[in-house]
Amino acid sequence: MLNYVWFFLAALFEIAGCYGFWMWLRQGKSALWVIPALVSLTLFALLLTRVEAAYAGRAYAAYGGIYIITSIAWLSVIERVRPLTSDWIGVAFCVIGATIILLGPRWAAT
After folding, report:
1. Distances from the Cα of 68 to the Cαs of 21, 25, 27, 84, in angstroms?
2. What is the pLDDT of residues 17-28, one digit of tens each?
3. Which region, left, alpha or beta, applies to residue 35 given φ > 0 means left and ψ of -120 to 50 means alpha?
4. pTM to 2 decimal places
5. For residues 38 and 48, is the Cβ–Cβ distance under 8 A?
6. ∠ CA(106), CA(96), CA(73), 5° rounding?
């Protein structure tokens, strides 16, 4: 269960870091947005290493599902855009897939 906390925190920092570049390059904000963006992206990378997984590729694949739900939440909370029903359906499939990837090796071992 702790893996989901690490995934969620990593996703927040990755999205925030990318958002800083978005604000600078797409919204015409100051280039100073890059400084916190780079700090945030560094924290993202460090947090993702906290995940309990034997292989980085499996951790990153499982992370993808959590990243998607966090992105849709970001859309709603930070950008104040109401997600569509299809967004939430897609999120559900992704989280199920991420859970299968993360827990799959344990199921196969039993």
Report:
1. 19, 22, 23, 14
2. 999 999 999 999
3. alpha
4. 0.80
5. no
6. 130
